[in-house]
Amino acid sequence: MIGRLRGILAAKHPPALLLDVAGVGYEIEAPMSTFYELPELGREVTLVTHLAVKEDAHTLYGFAQESERALFRSLIKVSGIGAKTALSILSGASVDEFARLIQRGDLAALQRIPGIGKKTAERLVVEMKDKVGAGALPGLPVGAVRGAVPADPVAEASVALQALGYKPAEVGKLVQAAAAPGDSAEAIIRKALKSALRSG
After folding, report:
1. Residue 52 belongs to what domain range?
2. CA atoms of 38 and 17, how far apart (whole Å)
3. How many domains does the chain have?
4. Would you call the peptide bond into 181 cis, given omega within 30 degrees of 0 as the criterion?
5. Which of 17-31, 67-81, 129-143, 167-181 has the lowest average pLDDT?
6. What is the C-alpha separation between 192 and 179, in angstroms, rounded?
7. Which CATH number characterizes residue 171's domain?
8. pTM of this prediction?
9. Dihedral of CA 6/53/120/178: which sign?
10. In this predicted model, what pLDDT tens digit does every residue of 48-105 receive, in sequence order?
């Protein structure tokens, strides 16, 4: 099991990044919460990781914080929640924000996350309530895009949001409302995800 990687950040195309560890390039999928904390390309970064092994693929997921990985691992044990949905949850809400949604039983907010319907939201509240309480997760106070990704921040944000499960029509509205002159792709995505979680 690969539990941690330290290397040079070689590429980042949300939700995928490439980490050069002693000459070996690791393709890693990560939530936007991790992307917000990444350094510039060419700088060293350490990520805690989770390796998912399936018959047809070995996928490595990376997280800036241990609490994010702990929540990811708890989420993928919930029936109906796969890795893609777990990444969407971590991208749309910080670990502590998600804990508050669960403790409040805020089904409406949970259903705004791609891949979560009413039944799944209800199941999340029931199954996660005890797992996100104070002290339940370490550090709790809380498929890769391949090919060319546009250098334009708005286009890059749009690609990333679609990879997280948002429909193209939703993406257009979210990005248009979130984008401001000079914003990086990460900044646009952060604002769009916050808006998506609160609107509806």
Report:
1. 4-63
2. 10
3. 3
4. no
5. 129-143
6. 8
7. 1.10.8.10
8. 0.69
9. positive
10. 999 998 888 899 999 999 989 999 999 998 888 889 889 988 888 888 888 888 888 8
